[in-house]
Amino acid sequence: MSKPIRVALSGSGFRLGAHLGALQAIADAGYEVVELAGTSGGSIVASLYASGMSLDAMREMCMTLDWSPMMSFSPWALVTKQALSSGNALLQFLQKLTDGKTFADLTIDLKVIASDLLTEKEYEFSKASTPAAPVALAARASASIPIVFAPVAYGEVLCVDGGCTDNLPASNLTVDDVPRIGIYLESDDAPLLPGAYGLKTLAPRIIDLLLASNEASHIALDSKDGATIIRVPTGYASSLDRNMAASTRQRLFNDGYSYTKAVLEQLTASAVSLP
């Protein structure tokens, strides 16, 4: 008999394989995910899984997909959208994979976290707050890296990347007797020596720095509230590498799996030892 669990997935850029490895470890340990919360790249994985895409299909996609067409840069987008990319290709791709489902259509409780530019606060897409919202639109909003992707308008909000307000949304998970875990992809990049660097080198570090600005306090509060945070070191992979080497993708999957498996085994052992 499967055991219920609630899972939060952090921002990840294109390091999605680590989240897939974590979800595979959760499934292999006999858990059933009853609630998912995701931010940015984590929201894409969470949205596809909650929409019914199998882990095998998701893994095959993430092991081979070149994300470049979803991130094509356009001077016209810069003029009209104040961003390097309109994000339309990414939205269409997500709409296809989620089969156009809305939050009301889902059986898994899904919460997608974005940041509202108008209020400068976190915004949650969910069945309770936005039942008619397309899941694909929410994921596209949550993954709207500032300047890179155009903001997403929905109702009375204007959304950019959820990592600007909460890069690991474990606090959005329901608090009850069901275990809660957060999969946190750490960007443990080594310091650079002083010198002149191009945008290819600096852009991922700027994004990682942006996302890290609020992580420490959120993680501390989540842990205090009883969530288990699983840290997966991923500094060897760039968050903006749209077409990673197969070996890097496999390493991300393996690390997500092994770190999550180890923590779940500890949780199981602790539960067994309780009187």
The largest sheet is: 8 strands, mixed
Number of helices: 9
Q: What is the percent of helical residues?
A: 40-55%
Determine the strand fraction and express it as a percent band: 15-25%
SSE sequence, one letter per element = EHEHHHHEEHEEEHHEH
* Uncertain spans: none
Alpha carbon gyration radius:
18 Å
The shape, in one word, is: globular
List how many beta strands DSSP finds. Answer: 8
The protein's oligomeric status is: single chain
Distance between the termini: 22 Å
What structural category arises from helix and sheet content? Answer: alpha/beta
Q: Please, what is the average pLDDT? A: 89
Concise overview:
It is built from 9 helices and 8 strands. The chain is of the alpha/beta class and 275 residues long.
Question: Overview of this structure, please?
Answer:
- It is a single chain.
- This protein is an alpha/beta fold and 275 residues long.
- It is built from 9 helices and 8 strands.
- The chain has helices at 16-28, 41-50, 55-64, 75-81, 88-97, 135-142, 199-212, 215-224, 246-273, and strands at 3-9, 31-39, 109-116, 121-126, 152-154, 157-160, 180-186, 228-233.
- Strands 1, 2, 3, 4, 5, 6, 7 and 8 form an 8-stranded mixed beta sheet that branches.
- A hairpin with a 4-residue loop joins strand 3 and strand 4.
- Helix 5 (88-97) crosses helix 6.
- The longest helix is centred in the C-terminal third of the chain and has 28 residues, at 246-273.
- It is globular.
- The two termini are 22 Å apart.
- The model has no long low-confidence stretch (mean pLDDT 89).
